[in-house]
Design brief:
Layout: E1 3-9, E2 26-27, E3 30-31, H1 32-41, E4 46-53, H2 58-62, E5 69-70, H3 77-88, E6 94-99, H4 107-119, E7 124-130, E8 139-143, E9 146-151, H5 158-161, E10 165-174, H6 175-178, E11 186-187, E12 192-193, H7 198-204, E13 209-213, H8 225-245, E14 249-250, E15 257-258, E16 263-264, E17 269-270, E18 275-277, E19 281-282, E20 287-288, E21 293-295, E22 298-299, E23 304-305, E24 310-311, E25 316-317, E26 322-325, E27 328-330, E28 333-334, E29 339-342, E30 345-347, E31 349-351, E32 356-357, E33 362-364, E34 374-376, E35 381-382, E36 387-389, E37 392-394, E38 399-400, E39 405-406, E40 415-416
Parallel strand pairs: 1-4, 1-6, 4-5, 7-13, 14-17, 15-18, 16-19, 17-20, 18-21, 19-22, 20-23, 21-24, 22-25, 23-26, 24-27, 25-28, 26-29, 27-30, 28-31, 29-32, 31-34, 32-35, 33-36, 34-37, 35-38, 36-39, 38-40
Antiparallel strand pairs: 2-3, 6-10, 7-10, 8-9, 11-12
The structure holds uridine-diphosphate-N-acetylglucosamine and magnesium ion.
């Protein structure tokens, strides 16, 4: 059985008022389009994916290695489907239609929807959903317990406006159902072809029509930045509640921002105003103190991070490490028991076990052209305000005196000092 997914993304995002197409805006760090594509790709039965774009945004897809079908003119959701169907002579048994402005959070919904539609031999299935505020969505009109039509906001009468079962925009169509696509007439109010009009056409053709109601995480299209904001808020809450159910203590969760791909073990404490972005892993017993910004890195067990710490991508903070206030770590490996407690920058560095990095220490990792690395051994003491000019290696149990500028390697167990000698001159006031 051949199933083709068609993603409609040729709209001009006019209500969104943003130069970036709405499907590239993200929710918890992931583009809306990717929620859609990932959900589609998770359905093994789908063997072809077609994406419909307008010509201005073609490049966004080419950059992702996707060659989209170009809709021209932009004449509605039904118009998009008509154009691709006529131009590409598609010959699948079934078609899944999704909208790129509609993230799908729970992939299971799509699988269940497709399986149910196939097993019940339905020609046209609509994925519907109950919402508290249906304004702007196509309303699902049911008569005698059967799907009669979908009426768009502009065409709803007073009673239809009260219906809160809405069209998610996701359809599953048999070959027979989609072959009627050219019978859709232009909606005169909007001068567009509506895919939703296919329902009444399929009724006339006596095809089997049904609606499948989503009762899992919401599937809601976003047409404005405020709608995106609401959905983002919902999804943030969902991610945080899931973590709290798994034993993560998030204090004042409404102030904490967490992205997809963040993995936090039980017993971790997240204080207010923390940002955790993309692929952060945090081991049990660690505390992330307020105002820390942590991105794409791993933090071991029983660590203390922050307040006001910034951990940048590709960093590894091992167990029992302490990263204190106003410390920035970039692309570095910080071993077990290391303390970097105050006002430091550690970039492209490898810091050995139990080493103490004093306040204000900087690894000078950039010579204006290249990024250079620093290696500091185990059990070292780096005095405050040291500048370690990379590339440089400091051995195990070395001691660097405060204020030193280190430009040469320091061997194991050496004491290194590099600062001008202090002079104390008498009789300062004559
Ligand atoms: C659409 C549905 C509505 C449903 C809602 C769900 C129609 C007529 N209306 O309304 O019933 O409740 O989605 O969110 O289908 N697009 C194209 N080409 C076009 C026009 C749109 O590819 O010519 C794409 C857009 O990029 C977008 C999607 O289709 O991803 C939906 O278009 P949009 O204008 O957002 O439709 P809605 O008004 O939200
Ligand atoms: Mg929409």
């Amino acid at each position: 059985m051949k199933i083709c997914a068609i993603v409609l993304s040729a709209g001009r995002s006019k209500r969104f008022k943003s130069s970036l197409p709405k499907y590239l805006h993200s929710i918890a760090g992931k583009a809306i389009l990717d929620y859609n594509l990932d959900a589609i790709r998770s359905v093994k039965k789908i063997n072809k994916i077609e994406i419909i774009s307008n010509k201005e945004n073609k490049k966004n897809f080419i950059e992702k290695g996707i060659s989209p079908f170009i809709q021209n003119p932009i004449n509605g959701t039904g118009g998009a489907l008509k154009q691709i169907f006529n131009a590409k002579k598609l010959n699948s048994d079934y078609y899944l239609v999704t909208l790129s402005d509609t993230p799908i959070f729970d992939y299971k919904i799509l699988r269940n929807f497709i399986n149910k539609s196939i097993s019940s031999k339905t020609d046209l299935s609509v994925l519907s959903q109950e919402v508290s505020n249906p304004h702007g969505y196509g309303r699902i009109v049911i008569k005698d317990k059967k799907l009669k039509s979908i009426v768009e906001e502009n065409d709803c009468d007073i009673d239809q406006k009260k219906i809160n079962l809405i069209n998610t925009g996701i359809f599953f169509l048999s070959k027979k159902a989609i072959s009627n696509i050219n019978l859709i007439k232009k909606n005169l109010k909007k001068s567009e072809f509506y895919i939703t009009d296919l329902i009444e056409i399929c009724h006339q053709k006596k095809l089997k029509i049904d609606t499948y109601q989503n009762r899992s995480l919401p599937i809601q299209g976003v047409n404005t930045i405020l709608e995106l904001q609401d959905l983002d808020k919902f999804y943030q809450n969902f991610l945080k509640q899931k973590l709290m159910n798994e034993g993560v203590r998030i204090i004042h969760p409404e102030t904490v921002y967490i992205e997809n791909g963040v993995n936090i073990s039980e017993g971790v404490i997240i204080e207010p105003n923390v940002v955790l972005k993309s692929n952060v892993n945090i081991g049990r017993g660690t505390i992330i103190k307020s105002f820390s910004y942590i991105e794409d890195c791993s933090v071991g067990i029983n660590c203390q991070i922050g307040p006001f710490a910034r951990i940048r991508p590709e960093s590894k903070i091992s167990n029992y490490a302490k990263i204190g206030n106003f410390v920035e770590i970039k692309k570095s490996s910080i071993s077990e028991g290391v303390k970097i407690n105050h006002l430091s920058y550690v970039g492209d560095a490898n810091i050995g076990k139990n080493t103490n990095i004093g306040a204000g220490t900087i690894t000078c990792n950039y010579d204006g052209k290249n990024k250079l690395s620093t290696k500091i051994g185990n059990n070292c003491f780096i005095g405050s305000n040291a500048s370690i000019v990379a590339p440089v290696k400091i051995g195990n149990s070395a001691y660097v005196a405060a204020g030193s500028v280190i430009t040469k390697n320091v061997k194991n167990n050496q004491f290194s000092i590099s600062r001008t000698k202090q002079k104390n001159i008498k009789n300062r006031i004559k």
